[in-house]
Write a structure and sequence with these properties.
The protein is an alpha+beta fold and 281 residues long.
């Protein structure tokens, strides 16, 4: 079950061809996207996702996304969805055809969430740390690297996932050249230390997390302390709990890191998921 809507609000056949073969999003990854979790017909953090889409577009000097058109396009998909209660809704905004008139390509597609993701939410995951190949100090010095933009250029992230799978792991946590923790290919890293939650700052060249932000809001309301600051690998290993946060994963526990079993954080995982879900009760 998939539902596809073009930015003009037209429903389209997701099995048919709609994107020109010379679209720069396809040819060069010259575009941006967001993935929104929808539960019982309600998109979670749609505003922050659209904010991030706009920020990523600015970083690529793409035409600014028409927010009202995107909101209407999202609603078209929601109205047409007849699948499971949870859906992954992908918003895609590209530079459009090469040598075109500058009109961007935009569409939204709703898809079921994969069985592996659903299983891992419950069972937890094995993660590998991999070198991402840059130092956070380069973020401000080299804006053309687009660190912190959610672009369609995801080949490195997908390659990292395949590397993990080939080495008996489910997920990856990227490390910077200076030894600091960055993010997962499609997730933010969160650790718990007592009643404190910590995550890596966007200034290190990572995406500002929408799900991580929702968790931190709920945790603060429940009396937790939250911190956005650099993390190190020893801190991941020593934490009371290590988690990956993303729209479709929600809050997923890491139970094994680089082949080493971490302390059992099952109860803590349930507590954090309850906090996260309280944002939408």
């Amino acid at each position: 079950m998939r539902v596809l809507a073009m930015l003009d609000g037209t429903l389209a056949d997701p099995e048919a061809a709609h994107i020109r073969v010379d679209d720069l999003g396809l040819l060069r990854g010259d575009g941006v996207f967001e993935t929104v979790l929808v539960v019982d017909g309600k998109p979670r953090e749609l505003g922050p996702h659209l904010d991030r889409l706009e920020r990523s577009a600015r970083m690529l000097e793409l035409p600014a996304p028409d927010r009202a058109a995107w909101e209407a396009c999202v609603q078209v998909v929601l109205d047409a969805w007849r699948g499971p209660a949870e859906m992954a809704l992908k918003l895609v905004h590209t530079r459009g055809p090469e040598f075109g008139d500058g009109t961007p390509t935009g569409f939204a597609i709703g898809m079921p969430i994969g069985e592996k993701v659903l299983r891992n939410r419950e069972s937890g995951v094995r993660a590998l740390t991999l070198d991402r190949g840059f130092d956070p100090e380069i973020v401000d010095r080299a804006p053309w690297l687009l660190l912190g933009a959610k672009t369609l250029s995801y080949a490195v992230n997908m390659a990292a996932g395949r590397w993990a799978e080939a080495h008996d792991a489910d997920e990856v946590i990227f490390m910077a050249a200076d030894g600091s923790v960055l993010e997962g290919p499609t997730s933010n890293v969160v650790i718990a230390e007592g009643r404190t939650l910590r995550t890596t700052p966007p200034s290190s060249g990572i995406l500002r997390g929408t799900t991580q932000g929702a968790l931190f809001r709920a945790a603060e309301q429940a009396g937790w302390v939250t911190k956005v600051e650099p993390l190190t690998l020893p801190e991941l290993r020593a934490a009371d709990g290590l988690f990956l946060a993303s729209s479709v994963r929600k809050i997923t526990r890491v139970h094994t890191l680089d082949g080493e079993a971490l302390p059992d954080a099952s109860a803590l995982h349930r507590e954090l998921n309850a906090l996260y879900e309280s944002e939408y009760a």
